[in-house]
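idk why but the lab printer keeps eating my pages so im just putting this in chat instead. protein + adenosine-5'-triphosphate:
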Amino acid sequence: MTGLVQGYGNRQVIRGMDLVLGVGVFGLLGPNGAGKTTLFRTLATVTPPRGGSLEICGEEVLSEASVRRARRNIGYLPQDFTFFPSYSVYDFVRYCAWLRDVPEREADGATRLALEKVDLADRAKARMKSLSGGMVRRAGIASAIVGAPRLLLLDEPTVGLDPAQRLEFRSLIRSLRDVAVVLSTHLVEDVAALCDDVAVLTDGGFVFRGTPADLAGRAAADSFGDSPLERGYMAVLGQAGRAAAV
Ligand SMILES: Nc1ncnc2c1ncn2[C@@H]1O[C@H](COP(=O)(O)OP(=O)(O)OP(=O)(O)O)[C@@H](O)[C@H]1O
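predcted complex ->
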C-alpha cells in the first residue's frame, strides 16, 4: 500500500501509510483505538481506501473485478466475526471456502484440512452454537486458512484461546508456507514467538518497524513491562506520546 488514507465520517484514522509485505509473519501492535482493525478491514478489501493505493498479489485493487480477484488470495479472521449459529462447523468453514471461490472440486478437501489444522476435525458435525469460545475462535482460524490464501489477516486471533491452544496456534502459523501473515495482538509474547517483522501503530501511523529484537532494544531503564519486548513496546509508545504532545 502506498499513501493509504482511511477514516470514518470527518475523522482520518489511517494517515498516508506506506507498507510492503512479503512472505513471513508481520506483527501489528498498538493500543486500543490505534487503527489496527481499520487497517485490517482495508487490507481485506472490506472498506475501500479513501486515498492512496492498495496492491494485493501484484494487482492494484480498484475495480469490482480486481476486488474479487484479490479476495481469492485473502484469508481474513476479523476480531468479531459472525456465523450462522445453526451451521455445523464443517458447513461454516465450507461456506467460507465458497465465499473465497475455492474451486468446487477442492473445497471439501480444503475444508477437512483446515479443520484438522485447528484440531476441530472431530467436531466437524457439531453446530457452531454448541462450541466453546476457544473452539469458535479455532473455527474462525480454519475459515481464514481454508484454501491456502496467500495473504492471511488475523485480527487478535489468540483472544479466548487457552495456553495450550495458543501454543498450537503458534505451531499452525509456523507450519504455513509461502504466506504473508498479518497478525494483530495485544500479547507481545505472541509477537516474540511468531513474528519476523513487527510494527507499532498509534494514532493511524507506524511509530516503529523492525524485528522483535529491535523493539526489545528500544527499552529504556525506566520502561514499564515484565519482559524486554514489553518494555521496548512501552518505551516506543511513550516516545510517540511525547512527540505528539510537543
Ligand atoms: N465504524 C466506525 N465508525 C466511526 N469510528 C470508528 C469506527 N470503527 C472504528 N472507529 C474509530 O477509529 C479508530 C480506530 O479504531 P480501530 O477499531 O481500527 O482500532 P484498533 O487499533 O483495532 O483498536 P482495538 O485494539 O481496541 O481493537 C478509533 O478511534 C475508533 O473509535
